[in-house]
Design goal:
Blueprint: E1 5-8, E2 11-15, E3 27-31, E4 36-39, H1 47-56, E5 64-68, H2 74-77, H3 80-87, E6 90-94, H4 95-103, E7 125-127, E8 131-136, E9 139-145, E10 154-160, E11 163-167, H5 183-195, E12 200-203, E13 207-210, H6 212-225
Parallel strand pairs: 4-5, 5-6, 6-7, 11-12
Antiparallel strand pairs: 1-2, 2-3, 3-4, 8-9, 9-10, 10-11, 12-13
Helix pairs in contact: 5-6
């Protein structure tokens, strides 16, 4: 396994293929003056590795106040119960994906894809509507409702150091009836993301796209693939 990587000022890639378990989607930690925020949490098969990667980055995992889950699939939410129980981190997810997490639904969480189970887990804050801003000190973390892959999929962005960092975790889909996917809504969501003019795009499975042109080109390439 590799080591955590610095993506931008105070933004760390701490999990994902080659960094933690091979089945993990990418996991990020964002630093704030008094606390840390984790974005997604992998499948749950490498929670200890995530903690070590955070520590190896010189960060204190006990300061993870919040875990934001971009949607309800197991490769993004699997270690969330671990961080909630061990570090008292609050879990944040859009209300339209919250029920699957709270019930541990094996199909909607895609746990059945991975031959595992996800325990019913309380959600501490349910995002509502199209755009909600979370404050951490004086900084804003923007949570945009970007449905399509799942009904409650969100994308997150942060403006820091003159750059806009976008966490668009599963831009590529897939789109399945069992996930309650909606390609029409997804196309609208991608147009929202293009309008952000992100400088860095962090995708859940296909890596980090640095530079506005590369970030936009990746999103447009996905739009083209679906016609």
């Amino acid at each position: 396994m590799g080591k955590a990587e610095v993506i931008a000022d105070g933004v760390y890639l701490v999990g994902g293929p080659g960094v933690s378990h091979s089945e993990d989607a990418t996991v990020f930690v964002v630093t704030f003056p008094e606390e840390l925020v984790m974005i997604d949490s992998g499948t749950g098969k490498s929670a200890g590795r995530l903690v070590k990667n955070i520590e190896d980055s010189g960060l204190d995992p006990s300061k993870i106040s919040t875990v934001i889950l971009t949607h309800c699939h197991i490769d993004h939410i699997g270690a969330a119960p671990y961080f909630r129980e061990r570090f008292d981190s609050r879990l944040v997810v859009h209300e339209l994906d919250a029920e699957a997490i709270e019930k541990g639904d094996p199909v909607l969480t895609a746990a059945n894809w991975y031959g595992t189970n996800f325990p019913p887990t309380p959600v501490d804050k349910k995002l509502k509507g199209e755009h909600e801003v979370l404050l951490f000190g004086k900084e804003e973390l923007h949570c945009l409702h970007t449905p399509g892959h799942t009904p409650g999929s969100i994308s997150i962005y942060l403006d820091r150091g003159g750059k806009r960092i976008l966490f668009g975790q599963d831009i590529h889909g897939p789109f399945l009836p069992s996930f309650k996917s909606n390609v029409i809504l997804w196309r609208r969501s991608m147009e929202k993301l293009l309008a952000l003019n992100a400088d860095i795009l962090c995708e859940g499975h296909y890596g980090i796209f640095s530079g506005r042109q590369r970030a936009a080109a990746y999103i447009r390439s996905q739009l083209r693939q679906l016609g």
